[in-house]
């Protein structure tokens, strides 16, 4: 049996958790800043990270042709 940290799912779930933490932090900070450009950067960054989180989820679930063997 493989150690947990050598299993791909361990890493994909860890990254998804970290992405979500960053997404939440950026979206919270949107309400804390006054500069429209920084608000836009936080929101855009959160959207990009949401896409990355989905890509890791798709890899884990083999939802996309690229991740199927």
How is the secondary structure organized here?
Layout: H1 8-30, H2 36-61
Please report the total strand number as a whole number: 0
Rg on CA atoms, Å: 15 Å
Quick one: overall form?
Answer: elongated
What count of domains describes the coordinates?
1
Task: Name the average pLDDT.
Answer: 90
Q: How much strand?
A: under 5%
Identify low-pLDDT runs. Answer: none
Distance between the termini: 22 Å
User: Helix proportion of residues, in percent?
Assistant: over 70%
Q: Report on the biggest sheet.
A: none
How would you sum up this structure, described in words?
By secondary structure, the chain is mostly helical. The protein has one domain. It is built from 2 helices and no strands. The chain is elongated, with a radius of gyration of 15 Å.
């Amino acid at each position: 049996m493989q150690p947990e940290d050598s299993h791909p799912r361990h890493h994909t779930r860890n990254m998804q958790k970290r992405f979500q933490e960053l997404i939440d932090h950026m979206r919270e900070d949107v309400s804390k800043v006054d500069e429209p450009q920084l608000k836009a950067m936080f929101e855009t960054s959160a959207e990009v990270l949401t896409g990355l989180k989905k890509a890791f989820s798709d890899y884990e679930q083999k939802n996309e042709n690229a991740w199927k063997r």
